[in-house]
Amino acid sequence: MYFKKSIIALTGLFLCVFLIVHLSANSILVLPEDVARDMYNSYSTTLRESPLIKIVAYVLYLSIILHAIYALLITINNRKAKSKGYTMNRFKENSSWTSQNMGLLGITILIFIVVHLANFWARIKLGMGEGVDLDSKGHVDVYEVTYSLFQNGYYVIFYSLLMIPLGLHLHHGLKSAFMTLGFYHKKGLKILAKVSLVYAAIMTVGFGIIPIIVFFK
Ligand code: HEM
């Protein structure tokens, strides 16, 4: 059990770091178009052409898969234990709605990631779906792919709304990951709770507001 929890914690922390980098890069999208297009496309091309980033990307895909599989295994285990009456504590009274529903929140995020990868990754990296434009340097115009997606109001609502379950999941997940890895310092835990809250709020508001700003650009 501890091994599974540690894998969830380690992969989760890695995904948290990825989200910081991903949000920083996507913040370029809120800049005026003449600056944003070149910056976003150069950043995206540099990433796609770097051999080191390719390795990091494989670690990222593996982390998402391991995180989801082990979380699913633990959720099934917990449900079995609960139905057999093994849980001694008053589970519902002792834990928050978020901590009881991490599985549900995780599945919602997984659905988001599948749609998101179909929107971007499959089009940009695999060339699937509608043809993609090339920028002035002959590279895939990732800015245009993003801009045109967020001209569709349904996608804007989908992306912005699903950042709420993401935030709830991150808020509980970040704290839990450190605790699973043995972080139990009393004062430190209070600081950790605040850091998790601020981190989750920045991710929800940051990722949630970008599609809205791009829509109205
Ligand atoms: C405003 C919101 C977002 C925008 C505009 C956005 C944009 C993008 C783009 C353009 C790519 C393709 C990059 C490339 O190959 O050049 C991408 C990849 C990806 N995004 Fe997002 N993203 C957003 C939010 C998120 C969120 C919230 C998550 C996770 C919960 C996420 C997870 C990923 C993953 C896992 C990849 C694949 C990474 C890779 O292969 O390099 N994204 N995103």
Give a quick set of tags describing it:
mainly alpha, 79% helix, 217 residues, binds protoporphyrin IX containing FE, 3 helical TM bundles of succinate and fumarate reductases
What is the strand and helix layout of this fold?
Blueprint: H1 2-26, H2 33-49, H3 51-83, H4 91-94, H5 97-100, H6 102-125, H7 142-149, H8 153-161, H9 163-180, H10 186-215
Helix pairs in contact: 1-3, 1-9, 1-10, 3-6, 6-7, 6-9, 8-10, 9-10
The protein binds protoporphyrin IX containing FE (HEM).
Percent of residues in beta strands: under 5%
- Structural class given helices, strands, pairing? mainly alpha
- Number of H- or I-type helical stretches: 10
Q: Count all strands and give the number.
A: 0
Mean pLDDT: 90
The CATH architecture classification is Up-down Bundle
> Which ligands are bound?
protoporphyrin IX containing FE
- Listing every helix as H and every strand as E from the N terminus to the C terminus, the arrangement reads HHHHHHHHHH
Can you walk through the features of this model?
The chain has 217 residues and is mainly alpha-helical. The protein has helices at residues 2-26, 33-49, 51-83, 91-94, 97-100, 102-125, 142-149, 153-161, 163-180, 186-215. It has a single domain, classed as Up-down Bundle (3 helical TM bundles of succinate and fumarate reductases). Helices cover 79% and strands 0% of the residues. Helix 1 crosses helix 9 (163-180). The site of protoporphyrin IX containing FE (HEM) has 21 residues, from helix 1, helix 2, helix 3, helix 6 and helix 7.
